[in-house]
Amino acid sequence: MSLFDIGEKIKVYAFVGPSGTGKSYRAQMVANSRSVEYIIDDGLLVSGNEVVAGVSAKKAPTKIETVKNALFQDEEKKKEVQDILKKRRPKSILILGTSDSMVEKIAKNLGLPEISETIYITDVATEEEMETARRIRVTQGKHVIPVPTFAIKKDFSGYLLDPLQIFKSTGKGNEPYISEKSLIRPAFSYMGNFTISDTAFKQIIDVVLKRIKGVYKLSRAIIRKQEGGYGDGIYIYIEIVIEYGYNIVELTEIIKSRIQKEIENLTAMNVLKMEILVKNIHFQGK
Question: 38 by DSSP, 3-state: which?
């Protein structure tokens, strides 16, 4: 069944090439050449300057889950992308994949029309360029996602954090089987970077906390660079006051989950570590 039963039919393009040959790096160029509005890559739906739906397949805990996420076989993740497409009704979309069968499966799973045109990596890149991309993928683990480059700037120091988002996956025995840096960089970002101050991160955290029942207030927040075993990201430390009567362990788990999701969705920065100190308890009427 097609995603769109009535009205204009979305035009579907495919961009195909072996893993590590630079498809994601060239995705914006291919999309722009055909006036394509949306890109599907690595389990993500990208529109213009942002990831609007989906979860990176590289965040999956196993290889099997990685493949399932990339093909949108998970009903919840599939529905999230379908809902956005139904609401926005784009005229065109570009699907990235490693083979013709892969992009066809993605289109079918999402209920999209048949692919009208397939562009191959060999159409837009030389063998030398593809070999360079493969070498970078193997030696540096960089995977390019076609959304803007972001950096963190500390208000007091002018420090810039590397615009790298790290995705970690583990295999049997919690041993990493993949370790890639998703380099977030479209064609236009070579003109300069977007900079996000640590104050903006604190404001996001404050807004999230105000929406969580049981949190009285945010007392303090520290945002800084964190170097992890899989690359750089951000470290978050917060001190909060909670309302009396709430389970502290359960509440802090909810807080961690929501803050991480909101920051990663809004800024594309990877939250490597988060610590919460419940500094005080507020009693109603006192």
Answer: strand
- The residue extents of the domains of the chain are 1-128, 196-282
> pLDDT band at 137, cuts 50/70/90?
low
Q: Is pLDDT larger for residue 257 or for residue 162?
A: 257
Identity of residue 38: Y
CATH of the domain spanning 1-128? 3.40.50
Residue pair 282/244 in contact (Cβ under 8 Å)? The answer is yes
Cβ count within 10 A of residue 157: 8
> What's the distance, Cα to Cα, between the start and end of the chain in Å?
59
For the domain spanning 196-282, the CATH number is 3.30.70.1350
Contact 70, 79 (CB under 8 A): no
Q: Could you identify the residue written with the tokens 């977007």?
A: 194
pLDDT digits (tens, 9 = 90+) for 65-124: 778 888 998 888 889 999 999 988 899 999 999 899 999 999 999 999 999 999 998 898
Q: What is the pTM of this model?
A: 0.51
190 within 8 A of 221, measured Cβ to Cβ: no
